[in-house]
Design brief:
alpha+beta; 311 residues
């Protein structure tokens, strides 16, 4: 009797639960607690757990393997308004949203992870939003779908679309202006270098490369962007120029940091004029598979080929 009397004390029961949670960082289920401390009755265990939850010492989470588990709270405490609340659904929902970080989580995923039904979940989300513990953000990746995250977090670029979106609208005109200005800067640099090293082709090529940081600073000084563009943003624009054949990319390393370098290139084929080979009528002729020298359909009698040659 004396051996168990200490554990029957509510304070000792709470301390023992905290010790067991510390030994199981992924969380501990009620059945595991029952096995580890059988001398504590179910009523005492429940009272101790509720008190630890209300004090903000434990998190209540849902584990795929163990079901509902109790886990020691992170060093960053819950807000006082949530800690004071005895609503288990709120604690579960808040913990899942917190875990999602600045990428947020959809309502359906919250419901799956917490097992909180739709009606109760909507009520819980509204309650947490009204107290400015969480916020909803419209995701550019899915129409009419919101993700939830902690109120003070800045949404990830994958959610907001970064500099290229204003709300849910893609800023195509802004992207086009950036594209033109980046290309103009590269062409201008190339012309200056070509003139400076007119008799040295090796130096012409090496010196005409410009770092993405230098281009970012140029765009920033122009004052054409309302948002603070990152080097990653500028490289996104520059890579479209690479895909269009307007510039080429190289990479260098400086102090273990990879730096993107870009230079304007000359077109092999003028984009507006195209190539005579590209404009061959055979390229779009639906009968090309039946066209042979000894066939009724043949190149010698093809009126489209004749018109093309005359042109």
């Amino acid at each position: 009797m004396n051996e168990n009397s200490g554990c029957e004390n509510p304070i000792n029961a709470e301390q023992r639960i905290l010790e067991l949670c510390g030994q199981n960082p992924d969380g501990i289920s009620d059945s595991m607690l029952q096995q580890e401390i059988p001398q504590i009755s179910a009523q005492q265990r429940l009272a101790a757990l509720n008190r630890l939850l209300s004090l903000g010492r434990l998190d209540l989470l849902k584990s795929p393997q163990l079901g509902i588990v109790y886990r020691l709270k992170d060093k960053i405490p819950l807000t006082s308004s949530l800690s004071a609340s005895g609503d288990i659904d709120e604690k579960l929902v808040f913990a899942v949203i917190k875990e999602s970080g600045n990428k947020g989580i959809w309502t359906r995923d919250i419901s799956t992870k917490t097992n909180v039904k739709s009606t109760a979940l909507n009520k819980t989300l509204k309650s947490l939003e009204s107290r400015k513990l969480i916020k909803s953000v419209q995701s550019v990746n899915a129409n009419k779908k919101k993700v939830y995250m902690l109120y003070d977090l800045e949404p990830d670029r994958s959610v907001t679309g970064g500099a290229w979106y204003s709300g849910k609208e893609f800023e195509s005109e802004f992207v086009e202006i950036l594209n033109e200005q980046c290309y103009h800067f590269l062409v201008q640099r190339k012309e200056q270098i070509d003139e400076k090293f007119s008799h040295d082709p090796v130096m012409r090529q090496a010196s005409s490369f410009v770092s993405s940081k230098e281009i970012r600073d140029y765009i920033k000084n122009l004052g054409i962007s309302r948002v603070d563009l990152t080097i990653e943003d500028i490289e996104t624009i520059l890579n479209t120029l690479v895909f269009d054949g307007k510039c080429e990319r190289s990479v260098t390393k400086k102090q273990n940091e990879q730096i993107g370098l870009y230079r304007a290139t000359n077109y092999v084929i003028e984009p507006k004029k195209g190539s005579p080979l590209v404009r061959l009528p055979c390229g779009i002729c639906p009968l090309i598979d039946n066209c042979h020298i000894d066939s009724i359909i043949n190149p010698q009698q093809c009126i489209y080929m004749k018109d093309w040659l005359d042109f």
